[in-house]
Amino acid sequence: MKPLCFLLCSVFFASTSYAQVKAGTIVRPRVVETKDEVEYYEVEVTTNQKSYLNLLKGTWNFTSMRRQPRVEAESLTNASLTINGDSTFSGSTGCNTISGKFTLKGTGIRFGNLTSTKMACNNMDQETAFLKLIQQTISNYSVTNDSLLLRDVTGNIVFHAKKN
Fold first, then answer.
1. pLDDT digit string, tens, across residues 62-85
2. CATH topology of domain 53-163
3. Signal peptide location in the record (predicted)?
4. Residues 45-56: b if buried by 16+ CB within 10 A, e if exposed
5. Residue 124 needs a FRET pair 20 to 30 A away by CA distance; which of 76, 103, 130, 131 works?
């Protein structure tokens, strides 16, 4: 049984471009002349994620926020975010102005280095939740026409925004 398997495996490897991918490296088996062993060699592979930065650039006006999944969305007014091409953002929480940096990886997005002015407002609870969600909860996004959805790690919609 072992010689038959080896013969079939040898024919398979020789006649196809079979490859295994391990940790960013393609490993292709190659049959050695002795016909009783298989030798592996590694080839470096690089991949490029598609950038959606051009779709994200611009000013987005937030219309709603969900503090938790399956909770009714609450309306946001005067909250906005301007995404710049140099991985920085600025905006407003409806009371205070914010700015910081973001990183993109495919459809993943993370906001960090957030700074904010410290003016007192009527609805500080909503602003505190907004800032916490933007920094700690948002992990990916989707853009459709003039709509931006910012989502948590499990895909729940946290923020909905419209392009300005």
1. 999 999 998 999 999 999 999 999
2. Lipocalin (2.40.128)
3. 1-19
4. eeeeeeeeeeeb
5. 103
